[in-house]
What does this fold into?
Amino acid sequence: MKRIGLYFGSYNPIHIGHLIIANAMLEYTPLEEVWFVVSPQNPFKVNQSLLADNERLEMVRLAVRSNLRLKACDVELGLPKPSYTVATLAKLKEMFPEEEFSIIMGSDNLERFDKWKNYEEILSSHHLYVYPRPNHADCPLLGHENITLLEDLPNMEISSTYIREEIAKSNSVRYLVPDEALRYIKEKGFYL
It folds into this structure.
């Protein structure tokens, strides 16, 4: 049985903050792989404008292909929208019955985890590895046996929104976006 951390996001675009967190999860938890689950639509961000699913998935693939412990995962792209984590977990368990799946999330998402569809079911059968986000530390769920807060991880204040805005202004985002993903963004003319 392989221990896999599922790191959900729109990745619009993926950036180095995502990769730093994924790498830290591999270093400081029992996880053996991290799968970047590209989400088609976050139920909490219904009006968000996203690049096409396949374009965001390709950026993730390009960004992680040099690390065998990081994977791009497209499972949510074939599920009904909006995507709900509980349905994604059920589908992954059906596809990979031998694997053990955990969830990676920021402390900002943990604060509203009790609003997620069937969150108690998720929490009873999956571990949550939580990384710190600025001004988001205290949450009543932190005492739960299936939640681990990794307090010593770096605080990432890089956002995909900031990167899109900088690209739109023709400013450099070098070092914020992995080189191969940035080449793809430039080649396709995304976010201009």
Notes: DSSP finds seven helices and six strands in the chain.
